[in-house]
Amino acid sequence: MALQFSKDLVSGLVLVVISLLLYFYLIPGQVADSQSGAMSPRFFPNLGSILIGIGGAILTVSSSLKVLKKEKLKESTESQKLIRPISLIASMAVFIFIFEFVGYLFAAPVLIGLLMLVFGARKPLSILITSVIVTATIYVVFTYGLNLPLE
Amino acid sequence: MTNDIISAMGMLLEFQNILAIFIGVSFGVFMGAVPGLTGTMGIALIIPLTYNFPPITAFCVLLGTYKGCLFSGCIPAILINTPGTPAAAATVLDGYPLAQKGRGGEAMSMALWASVIGDVISTITLIFGAVLLAKMATKFGPPEFSMLVLFSLTIVAGVSGASLTKGLIAAAVGFMFGTVGLDPMLASPRFTFGAVTMMNGISLMAMLIGLFAVSELLIQAQSNVAKRTKRVAMAYTPTPWKTLKEKLPTIFRGSIIGIVLGSIPGLGATPAAFLSYSEAKRKSKTKERFGKGSLDGVAAAESANNATCGGALIPLMALGVPGDVTTAVLLGAFLIHGLAPGPALFTENIELVYAIFIALLIAALFLPIVGRAAIRLFSLITLIPRSVLYPIIAILCMMGVYGFNSSTTDLWVMLIFGLIGFGMRLLEFPLAPMMIGFVLEPIGEQSVRQALTISSGNWGVFISTPISASFLALTVLSIGFISFRTYKTQQEVNNT
Description:
The structure holds 2 protein chains of 2 kinds. By secondary structure, chain A is mainly alpha-helical.
């Protein structure tokens, strides 16, 4: 029988690791310490990392106890369900790259078209027309209505 | 005072001013209802257009925009689980579940009337009790602020959903993100990784849109594969007087919370909405309905949210201290029109002050008219196919975030928080506590460090005044009560 970890157990362990990374690596490297005797700029980041660590530890222990008690574990997310969200986030990332180089008018139709595909549109004409109309409408509203240049 | 109010009415009650209020409310409703656009942005955009107006006409437009936006953030929150403004995040908790049950129209109507009542109460309080509330707000020094923030953090328990542990973890993560940027006392960089753009910290707008809107898009994309989510049937459903009467205690409580928290600089509408929600849940006989579609939850959040408007204007007008980003922009508007908010404004321009207060009251009365029309108009977005609606929301969010600072870094930040929010939702971590931690960290840190600097490092400063000691006692009591309640709930679960 394949061993199945609960989501809470995994996230608890990940949080503990993040907390340790923050406390021992990121905070000493990224936050200067105070030499003036006043409260150190590290105090609150350290406090945050400790709270994350404690929370992660509690989550790990409580979910481990559930595992020991053989309580019903939550199903892990099936990887195929993540394909569309990944496509969506990739489309948005592509948009930001294109937007920086060619501007809104060329980048927006690409994003809208890609996202329409992600959300199930399949008719090329419908995708083309919607992309153009939405791009143009948002351009007019932002540039002329709200005086927010999108370039 | 009576003579001043009569003179102010004479100054205000002209056609152009009434029209200006109506236009302002309508524009504000539009800005708040479109995810990614905000009232802050709306006010900033409209200031140049009012430059040639008489001051009272200009403030009719600006304050109308402020009020319209405060209300309309609830429309996308209820319709598509995406708060139009940060304060509407608390409305999402019950508004969206109600919409999913086909009761979105009821939720909208309740939000509208709670907003209007909260707004009217806060404006009346402002008119007759401005001096008193301003005095109360000025008594808050760093120790009092510190303890107030500590107490406010206990509201995390009210928005943590099924797991208090996960809520506290989310708040701690938000707290950590709040430390990014320049340290508030010594200005040394924290977690900036050498990037100048990170010096100002993480953009609240980018984080908010990422956490709530982008993560929702990702969830929708995921559910599109497994199962199609139920399309929300939506039509404005008038709230019966009987139902509204039942919710009046919640609305009055929310209004008081909104006025008090709104009048304290640095807190504003978002913590007020969450605290009111938490209090409503605490007082409710049907606590189990909260988070699953409770009209009380919507009424509590919206009344407090809108009541902050009157409260937030007190420190701004009486002391020249902006309570939040929106009132900071309004402060700029005052200066552009040659008026310096502060005690002098009350002695030299008392008629204008009262005219502004009355304009706020008229704006509140316009809300039911504009609000109902807006609900009908924006509800039509549910008729648009998902394959068209979600790409439009995505591009609006991206352009809204970009337009706020003209920064592509903010777009990347939004995307990262979208992924974080998506991961949290998959792992069943609540999003709202993370935002509360993020919003309260800078205020709390600055207050604690200022208090310790003033007291030369003596931690006793936090119990040195009756106000701060009271807040500390309330915090301890609150934690004790939450722990006891969690223990009892766990015992009940174990027994069943």
